[in-house]
């Protein structure tokens, strides 16, 4: 083992794969073995590897101005252009954007800006945030507290109580429905739970509700029809902001510009963007807020002398330049339209596995999907311990495909948006082989529940 403390890794495990280079939707390890990247890295390499235009953009900007900060209003054209471009794209009213380096720090910035805003408008007690079970919003202290996954809390003493995070249901019908409950009844029940939570806590203590329009790390949960309409009606009734964490779903992933569009979320008040914002060529994130929220923060910052929040790399010019070029390519090459078409094909092909004895649910939208394995197909009983996902992930890797086990027993698919039908066929073929290996393993170990 090297001296690295590996992120999101069992520290007892050894190093698992050494990658050397990438090209298009493929990556290659240090033995020259080729893998199709069926998870776009970590849901982020939308335009694939070795994109000449993006590389040239990075090189040119490096030569022009390799670094400049934005403290004290110091700025550069490429940063201002990126903000203009984003503001024109997002469904947030009169959007203003704060730049950061990752989805996690962007969510932390939002938590702080919420407090700043509500203090500014004379409602300091309105700071709690409703997040959902199984949500993933990152790993910095505030973001990890918003996250609703056990491994991100255990041994870290999280969630951090002072943040006032409230928890509501995950909108996962397959796992969360009561016996005999229809989708509509499920939505009614969990949105009623949300309203009861608000009434119990007091609406005047709650600032915002945060949601990934479609989740990623928690197993690609696509909420049932009508869910967000009901959630937004409740939030509007109690004057609680809607905060869309679009770190995965932003920029074409679900077949539209944003997951909010796909899921019929109306005018979110805040949005978190990262990952595909730069096709992961350079780290960059954006915390987007409504224009009037920004306006309210101006006077208090003047009183203090400064809006006391900012990172060394907020608005890094190389990151801004490559993000701007990425957005230009999305538009010029109709990447979102292509993703929608490829998404329909990928979802259709994945559904061919519906009758497989290990497959409980196949879900997704656009170019993001998950297949959930179950110990009992009839009852949906999950495998104990959730190790099956890890086995299937390794089996895929053995067959030359990189994917990711999520939520224990689900395997996620999220290829670069430039993927072709032939490459989706290759993903399906490799998944089919890995699925057979997984079934052999389950049979051998007698893991299925009759
Ligand atoms: C929805 C969502 N929010 C936030 C994050 C955190 O982003 P980062 O890993 O860049 O900090 C992620 C990462 O996967 C995510 O999926």
Summarize the structure in words.
This protein is 39% helix and 15% strand. The chain has 450 residues and is an alpha/beta fold. The protein has two domains: 279 residues, Aspartate Aminotransferase, domain 2 (3-Layer(aba) Sandwich), CATH 3.40.640.10; 111 residues, Alpha-Beta Complex (Aspartate Aminotransferase, domain 1), CATH 3.90.1150. The strands form three sheets. Strands 4-10-9-8-7-5-6 form a seven-stranded mixed beta sheet, with helices on both faces. The protein has a four-stranded mixed beta sheet with strand order 1-2-3-13. A four-stranded antiparallel beta sheet has the order 11-12-15-14, with helices on one face. A hairpin with a 2-residue loop joins strand 1 and strand 2. The longest helix has 24 residues. The structure holds pyridoxal-5'-phosphate. The site of pyridoxal-5'-phosphate has 15 residues, from helix 4. Pyridoxal-5'-phosphate binds next to helix 4.
Tag the structure with descriptive keywords.
single chain; 450 residues; alpha/beta; Aspartate Aminotransferase, domain 2; Aspartate Aminotransferase, domain 1; 7-stranded mixed β-sheet; 4-stranded mixed β-sheet; 15 strands; binds pyridoxal-5'-phosphate
